[in-house]
Structure formats: C-alpha cells, structure tokens
C-alpha cells in the first residue's frame, strides 16, 4: 500500500535539519544527513536502486525511463532538506486540523501563536481541507519538506504504475538552501538532467519563472579607539559609525515597506567594538540595473557618513548570491508552458508568478540546468505559524506525475 504524501511529510518534519550560516562545512549541519539517509532507504524500498547520499549531504536518485521513445528529455525534480535558521526547528510537534471549517487556528503549544485569517486570507480557500501546523513553538518545516514529500510520493506512484509512460526522472534533494549554499557542490554531470523543477513554491496552482536577483554587502569599518575619559576630539567610535549608516537607509526601501516588484536594502547583522565594526546587508531587485543602483546608493550613504569621521576608514565588499532565473527560462519557454499545462491537468487554474526571494533553481539555472519553481502548498514560511494543506500537497504530487507524462507524450 502506498504511503500518503501527508504521512511522509509528518515523518520528515520531526527530523531536525536546520542549517547554520556560521558553519563553513558542507552540509553546514551533520543532522541534515539524518533525513538524507532516511530518504535513500525509502527510495530503495520503492525500487529506485541507484539512490544514494553523497559526502556533501545531497541525495541523488533516478526513476528509470519506461518509454520506447528515445528523445524524451531527462527531468529533474528538486527540493531542499534544510529548514531556516530564523526560528527553532528542534522538537517539531505537528498537528492536523481535519476538515477545517474556517476561522483562526490557535496553536496548542503556545497560546499566543494564532494563524489568523486576517493575516492569511488563503485560509478562506482551504475550507474542508486537512491543515498541518506545528504546535507554535517551532517551525513546521513545510519549506521544503512538503516538496520532498511530494517528490517522494510521486516517485512511489510512478514506480508502482509502469503503464504511465515517462522518460528518465532524476531526483535531487539538497542541503543548505536556506543559507544560500544549496547547490554549491551539486555535480550536474552526475545529475545528467536537461532541465528541472524545484518544488519549493507556495499557493497551490502557482508556477514561478522569476526570482529576485541577489547580492550580499559587507561594510567593514575601522574607527579610532581611545580611552573614553580622554576621547574629546579624538575618538571615532566604529559602532556609532555603523549605526549612522543603518539610520540613513531609506525607510521606503526596506523589506517591511516594499511588495510586488519593489526591491530592498536589508541590514541583516551588525557587530563591533569601538575600534572596528561590521554591518551585513542583503540587496534584492528583479533587475540587474536595480540591484546595482541600490548598491551604489548604499555605498554613497557609507561614504557620506564616513566624511564626518576623517580618521576612520571602511571597505565595501559585494558578493553575488544569485540572479533572476527568468533570464535563462525565457530561452526555454516550454519548461514553464508544460508546467502550466500539468497544473491544469491536475485540476487547478495555473497562476504564473514571481518570487520575492530565491530558490535552488535560481542558481541551477545559471549553472546550466534551467529550473522553474512549482508550488509545494506551504504558507507562512520561516515562522511558527507555518502551515500546509494535505489536499494541496496531493495536488502537487499530481502535478509532478502530469509533468512526467507530458514530456513523454510530446517528445
């Protein structure tokens, strides 16, 4: 008997897989491999004989082609195993609100945590669904264990139904996506796919072919340190300089004041002492030009602040993180067109959208594996209010199956 996508999901979320940006190893946390090992065991159990976990924590596997056609492209379905460091992922206690009938959902482990319809109007579309949440004291992990469960359920379905014809399908489960290193060590030659789909989106029916472009900026400040009792006219406090830079950021260019296609400048960390300080930023925009404009603005702010501190100096370092995958996907329109058709065949109205963020697919697209992003059904990511509908996960499984069929039909 096949294991339901919800049962798989419940099994995966209780395994702590949070990544750690301060770690320099790959994966950043060894515990991510605990889920990887389980997934390999389950894949082998359903007949996927080449499933394995590599030294970097990635899971690779192949559903063999069962068609007589020779020109069917090799598709990759990808999801990430880690959960975000933003909120605890230890000791996840999932609950299911069965046959949800509307209204706010109060989480049992923390009475202050309430999933409010006013904040999450998508709940109005989930009447009658079975909704999975955490108990409010941790993340749930739908980002992206919902995607993993959906790929695994689809793999089992295809392996048990050989009458459904399809080409070779590669499965890739990555580590460290939440800290921007998800595909650093992926071996694309070993993967051997022509293109891919990440199962890492939100609302059922959505297909996303566009992400932010993203850079990180580090401003390192060297101040003038001296005993505070003798500081008059001499001290230039690096912490104060760092604070002045942050204070001058445009208020209308922050994540909390932007939406849609607006980009932002977001300070993510500040540390230091009198002598030296560091400020970390992430810069986001849908266009390369917008990204560079925001970086130029940030550097001008830093330069203007530093003008008031002639004895101090700074460095301004930009690190590329990922780029808008639409640049690549526009050259391969059939990848998105087939996904739209698969979503329609799975019984939904397809909605094309843009992600105010990135996915493994952003990087993979520019590494040579064009990747669109398909819904996984989760909501309120990176928070204790995270939730996902069982029925929406089932729709994602159906979408994967329909995609496999479509590429074989039209080869």
Automatic annotation (TrEMBL):
Domain Peptidase M20 dimerisation: 212-307
E.C. designation(s): 3.4.11.4
Cofactor(s) it depends on: Zn(2+)
Name of the protein this chain belongs to: Peptidase T
One MF term in the entry's GO annotations: zinc ion binding
Enzyme class: hydrolase
Key word Hydrolase present: yes
Family statement: Belongs to the peptidase M20B family.
GO cellular component, one term: cytosol
Pfam families: M20_dimer, Peptidase_M20
GO biological process, one term: peptide metabolic process
Active site as annotated: 82, 177 (proton acceptor)
